[in-house]
Batch of 2 targets.
Target 1
Amino acid sequence: GDSIITVQLTEEDKVEDDVVFYLVFTGSTVQHCTSTRKINPGSLETISPGHDCCETVKVALCASREGHPVLVVAEDSFQFVQDEAYDAAQFLATCAGNQQALNFTRFLDRSRPPAADVDFLDEKVALAFRHLKLPAEWNVLGAEQSLSENIPRETLMHFAVRLGLLRLTWFLLQQPGGRGALSIHNNEGATPVSLALERGYQKLHQLLTEEEAREPDSWSTLSHTVHSGDYSVKHHRGLDVYVLTAEA
């Protein structure tokens, strides 16, 4: 999801300005409808929707004009694939609260990947997390979030802060248990806040300690989602296009 899709129109499809084009993606359980923006008379741009599973879906390019029936201009298939970022996000989501798994992730800290790799990892994993279908009861602290906060334990927030993952930290802060995780000490006595300070992650420390902290600048082009029952509407601020998703 959130990748740019370019649509090239054929000569016969280049029509008047009052025609509105949109794409319809039909999967096994979910359907997405995306608006488009015209780059020039022969090209359209839109955003790929975040899908609920890895499968090949049908995609139709439709044209709409006031007072006329909707026209299907072209049809094709579109494949959603499971990549490493999706695997990583799924692993982290399922190991929330699993101390053995969270302690294992600390091996990543010893290798200290280069800053460029960390930034890439942060962007991809945070985006994949945003598209995961998390259970309604999901919590940053795991199923045992009712445990006393005095019990030292590793959390997903410790993981994100230790590696300096700004976007992932922001995402976790918005989830149930995100704010509560900030005051939890691990076995070394460190909280996510003290870890950020100790490692010199100033932006991260600011994000964790300021009540009115704004989301990372790099997210300003990503989609903002509003949910309502079986539907959700996503606005991609960078391209100013919308995605309507409905469960079949």
Target 2
Amino acid sequence: LKEHTPAAVWFFAPRKHSDLVEWTQKVRAATGGKTKVWIQVGTVASAVEVTRTCSPDVLVVQGSDAGGHGLERGAGVVSLLPEVGDALKKHCAAQKLPALMAAGGIVEGRGVAASLVLGADGVVMGTRYLAAEEADIAKGYSDEVLRASDGGANTVRSKVYDSLRGTTDWPEGYNGRGIINQSYHDSISGMDLEKNKGLYAKALETGDAGWGVQGRLTTYAGTGVGLVTEMQSAKQITEEVREEAKRILGSFGSR
């Protein structure tokens, strides 16, 4: 870190809270405070504790609509973000408060505008950038992101995909949201785990054909996946989302 100082580090899913304190202190010591510390949380209580003990530059507030890994139990960002903001002002008023980034289910300008109204300083988008031309994922994965719709009904928070992929080292209380496919249906229908893992391994050998509703490979994505409908460059996505949010906020300001 002293030799190659990062602009920022992003911490998430510690085994215990003291890990965050240690990581933050060591990074700041190694970089002379040059590296910005981002910490992702999913509850009001953890937001307050992290702010008090780590003084992060940025607090990423992840709601339950987020794709990929997050808390098994939690609120959507629409209620979580303003409650976090209120709690920080109440319990951490004596210190500099972090910038708040909203995460979870935000894929276009309307979500960005709503997040800013709710008190966010910015947003984090993951699922939308799975359909970026620069995304280093398989075509089968990105095709499934473009195909999927009705994300609240067709994605699920579960540990099934971690079990099949062998990524089971997450702390207790975490799981991952992904698009429902045959692997998940077979799991909840009672298929033996080892048999399911074997079928998953065979699906890997088929390449892009392994994804899809009847496929078996994991497509981590948030509930906003149905709003992702085309491939674009990361630059195009960013500019489109930003301009849409500005138009919406501007229209409210003129009323």
